[in-house]
Amino acid sequence: MIDYLIVGSGLAGGILGLRLQKAGLKIAIIDNNDPNAAYHVAGGVWNAITFRKILKGWQADLLTDEAHRFYDDLQKEWKLDFYSKKEVVRIFSDVAFQNNWLAKSTEPEYSNFLSDDFPDEIEQLPVDLPFGCGSVKKAGYVDLDIFMPALQDHLKANTEYIIEEFDYDEINFSNNGVIYKDLEAKAIIFCEGYGMVNNPFFNWLPMRATKGEVLTLKNPGWNFDFIINNGKHLLDKKDGTLSLGATFEWKNLNNETTTEAREVLLKHIEKNFNFKDWEVLDQKAGIRPTVSDRRPLTGQHPNHKNLYVFNGLGTKGVLISPWLSKMMTDYLCHGSPLHAESNSDRFLKKHYN
User: Which of 4, 40, 1, 39 lies closest to 19, judged by CA?
Assistant: First the structure.
């Protein structure tokens, strides 16, 4: 018998699986190898500031500290180069935004995050800065093209890793736990992303999907070591390409890339950059799992006590996964409490029948 069967090995399931494995637990993973998983449009940037109102996001200090420690330690352990701390240079959209940023950067709560300073190198790029710019100092970048294959290869080498669609009808409950086909586990943890809407045990939770699309552009010869944001992220990947994204779509929830999203992204970048001849090398789409109150979902099924959910990381999966997976591991291993705002029990009264 294994301790936990994890369904899904994207950012959420993969990092949680690694945590449980390092805690000495025996796990198995079932993943459908979805080429349009949410992490494909995550971009890899972590930043705890919400730019619309220039506010620190949920648990910003805890999340940023743990994200840096987790990714930095792991790349040293694996002897790979997939993580670095990077400033996010935010281009100010108007005078009101500029004034709000400058005021916030002087507040003690924000002084470790926001600065009215910015790298000199941005002025060497063909960029218009009519209202100036500032920087987010506590931010970073995870190259998911390196990290995710390395994470999944590590899990495959150290656990039973099954690539198939999960069949809920194959779940049987026993006195000792759960039986799925020929696997017997103490419990199942569902980390399915937006696929949770098809899960008969957890589809009562208020999952909202957001489609995102990102572009890979040919780098016209620019060289910068920070992330540029003017409402979308622009990143120099140091391989001759730039990453641009992402869009947000709440209606046409499919995995198809669209010319509309491509045009939106290219028009957006042309607002501030004096360059028009972009060559699009690739375009990807994915569905992000978001929750109605913009908080993740962690916890136990109200009736089936050997079924758990770990989901709803939304657009900040790279930032949230390290801290949330640590909390979930402490909960499963030691009975430590889940954060009330991430505990799925918060929706019991309103949504569970």
Answer: 4
- The set of residues, in sequence order, having a beta carbon less than 8 Å from that of 257 and lying 6+ positions away, is 213, 283, 284, 285
Task: Please report, as a single letter, which amino acid is at residue 206.
Answer: P
pTM of this prediction?
A: 0.94
Structure tokens at 220: 């016209």
| 207 phi/psi in degrees, rounded to 5 | -80, 135
Beta-sheet pairing, 27-31 with 2-7 = parallel
Residue 191 one-letter amino acid: C
CATH code of residue 333: 3.50.50.60
Q: Provide the domain limits for residue 198.
A: 2-40+145-206+292-351
Which tens digits make up the pLDDT trace of 205-264? 999 888 889 999 999 999 999 999 999 999 999 999 999 988 988 887 788 899 999 999
Last residue of a domain, one of 289, 322, 343: 289
Give alpha helix (H) positions in the chain: 11-22, 60-78, 95-104, 144-158, 259-269, 317-334, 348-351
Count of domains forming the chain: 2
Give the integer Cα–Cα distance in Å for 286 and 263.
17
Tell me if 284 sits within 8 A of 41, measured CB to CB: yes
Do residues 130 and 219 share a domain?
A: yes
Which pair of tokens denotes residue 60? 């910003």
How many angstroms separate the CA atoms of 241 and 237, rounded?
Answer: 6
H or E element, residue 288: strand 280-291
250/234 Cα distance (integer angstroms): 23
Q: How far is residue 60's CA from residue 159's CA, in Å, rounded to a whole number?
A: 32
The helix (H) or strand (E) run that includes residue 98 is helix 95-104
Decide: helix, strand or coil at residue 146.
helix
